[in-house]
Amino acid sequence: MAQIKNIGLFTSGGDAPGMNAAIRAVVRTALFHNVNIIGIKRGFEGMINGEFSPMDRRSVSNIIQRGGTILKTARSEQFRHAEGRRKAHEQLMSHNVHALIAIGGDGTFRGTKTFGDEYDMPIIGLPGTIDNDLTGTDFTLGYDTAINTVINAVDKIRDTAESHDRLFIVEVMGKDSGMIAVRTGIAAGAETILIPESKSSLPKLFDRIENGRKDKTSRIVIVAEGEGEEGGAFEVGRRVKEKFPHLDTRVSILGHIQRGGKPTCMDRVVASRLGVAAVEGLLEGKRGVMAGLVEDEVVYTPFENAVKRNMQIDPNIIRIIEMLSL
User: Fold this and answer.
1) Number of structural domains, the chain?
2) pTM score, whole prediction
3) Which of 199, 200, 283, 302 has its Cβ near the most Cβ atoms within 10 Å?
4) Are residues 189 and 232 in the same domain?
5) 253-284 residue pLDDT tens
6) Which one of the listed residues 106, 131, 133, 267 is annotated catalytic?
7) In the listed set 228, 259, 290, which residue is the last one of a domain according to the structure?
8) Looking at the structure, do residues 18 and 106 belong to the same domain, yes or no?
């Protein structure tokens, strides 16, 4: 194993349930291998500003069940520029940090790849994003928790929808990816879903409302935020009200509740496995890669390939939603 004695650890981009479980796994795995972990607060911005602190077993006690990230997270305009990255490197060298583990998404990995190339620094990433839109892993940290949060919310919305014979347009996160909308649409028994990957879904929704069952006491439509040309739930709601003024149509934006909450068992297990893989990968000499799980096996994908994927929606999934919502 490589002689790495001090590893810097940070979270970046949007927070996701399971980040704390990953932090815990990284710290305890490193200590098991007699390696020090230096926590970096507030992502790249904290790296530039020198927000470093050593981490030990006690610093990660009782966090596996907590949402968010104890290391905080922030976006950094400074790090986009060479001068900002130079300052970050100087801070790392002054704290004797010669390797990094980054927990985040596509933007985080693009930043770490540039930084690692410029300064020849070993870096391994962990996929922390609720959107589940990265190539190189079947599931990202936070995705399972997020979809369960959505389901719990939609189940409650269904109660009031049935009580008032209403149609609810429910917006979920996923401006560039419909992964949350697809899974929750099936699980919530939605009439239809509107996602970025499908540009013709609004006419289908109109058709289902016009020609579908008239005795339904509630209808749920799941919309990915800012979906394509339809422009998100408010625009969809406006067009539905315009075409079907007799329907009691309401819009509900779930927003940032999808990012919070205690991580599910699945997210805790995935985070723990990948946290171990990140540390041991660095010690084995891996660098410039993201650790992920594919078919339940740990794999390492180069940062340049671990990018947002354009999800190809299986037509059978749409068929299932339409068939089961009759």
Assistant:
1) 2
2) 0.91
3) 283
4) yes
5) 999 999 999 999 999 999 999 999 999 999 99
6) 131
7) 259
8) yes
Does residue 76 sit within a domain?
yes
- Please provide the average confidence, as pLDDT, over all residues in the chain: 90
Give the model confidence (pLDDT) of 7-53 as tens digits.
999 999 999 999 999 999 999 999 999 999 999 999 999 999 999 99
Type of residue at 72: K
pLDDT band at residue 6, thresholds of 50, 70 and 90? very high
Strands 36-40 and 6-11: parallel
Query: Is 110 part of a structural domain of the chain?
Result: yes
CATH number at residue 209: 3.40.50.460
Active site residue 131: yes
What is the model's pLDDT at position 191?
83
311 vs 123, which has greater pLDDT? 123
Angle between helices 19-32 and 265-283 (to 10 degrees): 40
| Distances in whole angstroms, Cα of residue 208 to Cα of each of 27, 76, 181, 190, 233 | 52, 45, 18, 12, 17
Among the listed residues 264, 191, 200, 252, the one whose alpha carbon sits nearest the alpha carbon of residue 221: 191
Domain assignment present for residue 317? The answer is no
Of residues 313 and 244, the one with the higher pLDDT is 244
Q: Are residues 2 and 61 in contact, defined by beta-carbon separation less than 8 angstroms?
A: no
Measured CA to CA, the distance from residue 88 to residue 306 in angstroms comes to 23
Structural domain range at position 280: 6-142+263-302
Q: Are residues 168 and 111 in the same domain?
A: no
What's the N-to-C CA distance of the chain in angstroms?
58
Let me know if residue 161 belongs to a domain.
Answer: yes
| Gap between the Cα atoms of 16 and 105, Å rounded | 10
- Nearest to residue 139, comparing CAs of 314, 289, 290, 258? 290
